[in-house]
Task: structure prediction
Amino acid sequence: LLTDSIDAAPFLTDWRGLWHGAALGVALPETPQSVAAIVRWCAQHKVPVVPQGGNTGLSGGATPDGSGAALVLSLKHLDQVRAVDPLNATMTLDAGCLLRTAQRAAEEVGRLLPLSLAAEGSCTIGGNLATNAGGTGVLRYGNARELCLGLEVVTAQGELWDGLRGLRKDNSGYDLRDLFIGSEGTLGVITGAVMKLVPRPAARVAALLAIPSVEAALRLLEEARSRLDTGLTAFEMLSETCLSLVLRHVPTARRPIGTVTPWYVLLELADPNEEDRARAQIEALLVVGLERGWVEDGVIAESLAQSRALWALREDVSDAQGAAGKTIKHDIALPISTIAAFLAEADAAVAARWPQLRFVTFGHLGDGNLHYNFSPAEGDRTADILADQDDLNAFVHDIVVRHGGTISAEHGLGVLRRDEAARFKSPVELAMMHAIKAALDPDGIMNPGKLVP
Ligand SMILES: Cc1cc2nc3c(=O)[nH]c(=O)nc-3n(C[C@H](O)[C@H](O)[C@H](O)COP(=O)(O)OP(=O)(O)OC[C@H]3O[C@@H](n4cnc5c(N)ncnc54)[C@H](O)[C@@H]3O)c2cc1C
Result:
């Protein structure tokens, strides 16, 4: 238990340094039973509990408020791979196990845990499930929710529920697992999970393609899906502004193709058996794209190192944006068929009202998930663009919802989007959310002030 303010400090501020809180202390239990004992004590004394994994969340969900009344419950020391079952194609993990540790344990038995995000060296399985994390493999394998078969949870009363079932079919009542996934620590503490494994593809080939427009990127996506089907494991998009930011702020980054276009697509194809076949399929897609004017140029990675370098260009966008001054971020998702219309409308409307902003748009296009972000104009690094951000957020979110989208795709609501999300939910949906919260956490001790408006 950390009570010294210097020791506790890293647990009281979020990854981006946007939220700062205070706490009674930081508990670092090592077993599910200790988690249960701590929560039981908190329930008896009505002490709020703020569960925390790797503290990489981007919505302020893992940071306590400023009152100092809460206990931060860090799962960091509950970090073991409990078992790997290659025949059942599952692994059982402590909630505080780092995502990268879990991926490596799967690799050791020749399997793939297909959850992947740029924070994988720091985020935990429990945090991934509590936020229903997405990442770069969603197009092929789904979100964290789709990869989870069972959970172990400490309830708000401090009881341990063993739902660690490795079953692919289980219609034996309400799906409590799915209730805890994505609940951002507001219903209970996840202490363990059974995750699905898939065969490791023999080959993965990445390519970066220069694209003239969003419409062209969407046509290419449609063609890629019909040609490659489940072989297509990623279809990411970034703008020239994003690429320039990475080239400027990441010393190791190099421009991979000479042609400069407004957009780039990073796609990846996996093949269970042969690298040559994957390469041939990407080449054929590139030829079709060039013929139809959807692609202007492209590079296909020749080696794992080249593949990693292409991926780094996409994964380093967030850090590069951070280096370019203050940031405003929107983690939105839309039906893929409305993305072009959304961007046309939102880009024009935002540019007309906030001409000082630079658009930093990128995301998981294959999932309909865009990071619709803004930075200060080039050369104006110190500009404070945040003064008007509530108006801007509401302005963007209204357009998103009008196009059938959501204002939180993969980062959750936390405190950042809690009230904004409530603007778009019907009274009946809000009433059901409040009823679930009241049923499972009647004293409101689980991560109060987060997610539930
Ligand atoms: C560079 C970078 C890239 C990122 N890329 C992506 C991405 O591509 N896709 C994506 O989805 N996210 C992404 N994220 C966001 C973040 O990494 C994910 O939300 C991740 O799943 C959070 O895991 P964590 O262990 O750090 O959780 P934390 O940040 O510690 O917690 C997040 C939320 O979950 C709750 N929580 C944590 N552990 C538990 C538990 N055991 N039981 C109950 N509740 C718990 C917390 O209370 C909080 O509400 C990125 C973040 C960074 C910094």
The chain has a mean pLDDT of 96. The pocket of flavin-adenine dinucleotide is lined by residues 15, 50-58, 61-62, 75, 95, 117-119, 123-124, 126-128, 130-131, 133-135, 184-185, 189-190, 318, 410-411, 414, 447, 450 (CB under 6 Å).
